[in-house]
């Protein structure tokens, strides 16, 4: 298998970029595919799919949120002779009580999971919870750099998972036979509240950063004032409400089950990010 390239879609994203680095560190051939970068791949342009899939042995599928493009992509992968699929999905998509789904994102992810399972290929599904990297690379990052995180999260906690661990699980699933047919729910080893997370970052960075809990309507109004369409602002609020209500507080066994070691703690994430200069304002 190692002579054929491993296709990584979303290769510039939080998990995909780390998957690419970890595969290359093992000396494996990688086709890093994204809208910009080494190999052009665009979910919205199916004309880019064949060149990405040609000759690939395994594929990491990072789907485009809210779309149902994975099913036709998987059908194309089967025709190209791909052997193994690893799908990036999300925690809570099989729980109808997790959160409202006004944009259809969870329903689309569920369809993607079904497409992979029904493909006839070897498959593994990664279901990470909240990325720890949301604080330095995602939609909390600007607020953290500004010194104030304003969210309707109350004192809810989440078992934030480090994207390095997500990537390590994906790499194992792409390169080892024993993960076929597995669904790995991924989390950190302990739940932390937003206030605890911000305090941990403040300590690691040596900066003054605070968490400000907001009422939901005030949060939505602030997002709309910043230019976000109301339906998207409400969708963001629903995700934070799920966090507030403890829907992501539980600890999953995916990382130790896949890798045979504990997941990285939030403090380890914060400290390593500080060492890399990642908390600078």
Automatic annotation (TrEMBL):
Q: Which superkingdom is the protein from?
A: Bacteria
Domain NAD(P)-binding: start-end pairs: 10-176
Could you list the residue ranges that cross the membrane?
Answer: none
- One family from Pfam that matches here is NAD_binding_10
Record-given protein name: NmrA family protein
Native source species: Kibdelosporangium phytohabitans
């Amino acid at each position: 298998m190692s002579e054929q390239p491993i296709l990584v879609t979303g290769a510039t994203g939080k998990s995909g970029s780390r998957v690419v680095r970890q595969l290359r560190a093992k000396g494996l051939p990688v086709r890093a595919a994204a809208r910009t970068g080494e190999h052009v791949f665009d979910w919205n342009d199916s004309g880019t799919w064949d060149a990405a899939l040609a000759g690939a042995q395994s594929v990491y599928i990072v789907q485009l949120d809210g779309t149902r493009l994975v099913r036709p992509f998987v059908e194309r992968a089967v025709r190209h002779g791909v052997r193994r699929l690893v799908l990036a999905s999300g925690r809570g998509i099989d729980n109808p009580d997790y959160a409202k789904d006004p944009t259809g994102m969870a329903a689309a992810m569920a369809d993607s999971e079904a497409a992979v399972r029904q493909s006839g290929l070897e498959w593994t599904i990664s279901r990470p919870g909240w990325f720890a990297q949301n604080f330095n690379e995602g939609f909390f990052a600007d607020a953290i750099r500004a010194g104030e995180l304003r969210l309707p999260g109350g004192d809810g906690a989440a078992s934030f998972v480090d994207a390095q661990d997500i990537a390590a699980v994906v790499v194992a699933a792409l390169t080892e036979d024993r993960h076929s047919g597995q669904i790995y729910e991924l989390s950190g080893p302990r739940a932390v509240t937003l206030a605890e997370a911000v305090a941990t970052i403040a300590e690691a960075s040596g900066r003054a950063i605070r968490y400000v809990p907001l009422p939901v309507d005030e949060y939505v109004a602030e997002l709309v004032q910043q230019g976000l369409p109301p339906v998207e602002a409400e969708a963001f609020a629903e995700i934070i409400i799920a966090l507030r209500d403890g829907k992501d507080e539980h600890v999953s066994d995916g990382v130790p089950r896949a890798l045979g070691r504990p997941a990285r703690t939030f403090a380890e994430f914060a400290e390593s990010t500080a060492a890399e200069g990642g908390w600078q304002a």
